[in-house]
TrEMBL record:
Name used for this protein in its record: Arsenite efflux ATP-binding protein ArsA
Keywords in alphabetical order: ATP-binding, Nucleotide-binding
Pfam families, alphabetized: ArsA_ATPase
UniProt source species: Cryptosporangium aurantiacum
Keyword Nucleotide-binding applies: yes
Domain ArsA/GET3 Anion-transporting ATPase-like: 15-288
Coiled-coil segments on the chain, per record: none
Length: 375
């Protein structure tokens, strides 16, 4: 097992995208922010895109809020022209941007007013993944950034955006979509007036389930979708292919807890199976002892001897604290070994546990230094 060289990763001009993924509560957002700050202070123009709706990223960077537009972070200490910006994915706004970019303003207003579009753009399963891929594509295509860091959602679905091109292709090529498009391609007449034969039977079933108005809304939206998203699937595929290039690095983040390490193994397996460039694992919040040569058992024996003699109760208490910490360190090592045994070739960097939560740039700098110094 080798060490993950974070400093080399951040300062390599060929590294253009870093994707951080991991389960919830492991410090993934803090890690993404710390990486972004360190890259910016090394002279790179950096943007951190979070798909996690929590406010931790904004708070740690001293921003009152984040939205779909990159916001510059003040207080970055750099002399090399580096800048740090942060933003949070707004999937509906990104969907609106796609509509505006691929249709005329009048048609766009009709689409925005469509009830089915309003539902799909804000709450349909899979929309977030499509729009995450779209936003990453937009950022990369603009070529304004030396480095883009993506903070994925804190769940196993964090890598669902890798499936976006295939899911979108299945949707656009699906039988249901083709049936819904059929009326629009016959001349734009009312959806129920032109149905006949098999499609008429299909329409009666769907109308009974959805209702006449909703079926019209869906058909109208799908007709717009047919022309509006001519290049959407291709862009999603290009972005997927971009993620497989050497200019991208995936960093899995975990804490030394059984569930988190299990999820980290899942992420690593998925990335390796997809042929994605897995840079390594960040093992966060790792504990250490200042006297590694003194075992927990020996410390407890010494404390008991002091108790029997009544000498130095303070020393005895310190020895018991050391014993507890030593046991925690040993437990974390056993848990981490589950990952290293399964993935012996994946580089790892350990980040010591902080005494308190990170909530400002100074805290992010400490985390960044720990990431770099343990390479």
């Amino acid at each position: 097992m080798s060490g993950l060289d974070i400093e080399a990763l951040l300062t390599d001009a060929d590294t253009r995208i870093i994707v951080c993924c991991g389960s919830g509560g492991v410090g993934k957002t803090t890690t993404a922010a710390a990486l972004g700050l360190r890259a910016a202070e090394a002279g790179r123009r950096t943007v951190v895109l979070t798909i996690d709706p929590a406010r931790r990223l904004a708070q740690s960077m001293g921003l009152s809020e984040l939205d779909n537009v990159p916001r510059r972070v003040k207080g970055v200490e750099t002399t090399g022209g580096g800048e740090l910006h942060a933003m949070m994915l707004d999937m509906k706004r990104t969907f609106d941007e796609v509509v505006l970019a691929h249709t005329d303003p009048g048609r766009a207003e009709e689409i925005f007013a469509n009830p089915f579009y309003q539902a799909m753009s804000s709450s349909f399963s899979g929309t977030q993944e499509y729009m995450a891929m779209e936003k990453l594509s937009q950022l990369r295509a603009a070529d304004e950034w030396d480095l883009i860091i993506v903070d994925t959602p804190p769940s196993r679905s964090a890598l669902d955006f890798l499936d976006a091109p295939q899911n979108l292709a299945r949707f656009l090529d699906g039988r249901l979509l083709k049936l819904l498009l059929a009326p629009a391609k016959t001349g734009g007449r009312g959806v129920l007036k032109v149905m006949s034969g098999t499609f008429s039977l299909f329409s009666r079933v769907i109308t009974k389930i959805l209702g006449n108005q909703l079926l019209d809304d869906v058909s109208t939206f799908v007709a717009a979708l047919d022309s509006m998203f001519g290049g959407f699937r291709e862009r999603a595929q290009r972005t997927y292919d971009l993620l497989k290039t050497p200019g991208t690095a995936f960093v899995v983040v975990a804490a030394p807890e059984p569930d988190a390490v299990r999820e980290a193994s899942y992420f690593a397996d998925r990335l390796l199976a997809e042929g994605m460039p897995l840079a390594g694992l960040v093992l966060n919040r790792v504990h250490a002892t200042e006297a590694p040569g003194l075992s927990a058992a020996d410390a407890l024996d010494a404390a008991e001897k002091l108790d029997r003699t009544g000498e130095s109760p303070l020393t005895a208490e310190v020895l018991r604290i050391h014993a507890g910490l030593s046991r925690l360190v040993e437990r974390e090592r056993r848990i981490a070994a589950g990952f290293t045994t399964a993935h012996p070739d994946v580089p790892i960097v350990e980040v010591p546990a902080e005494a308190e939560d990170v909530h400002d740039l100074d805290g992010l700098r400490r985390v960044g230094s720990a990431l770099a110094s343990t390479a």
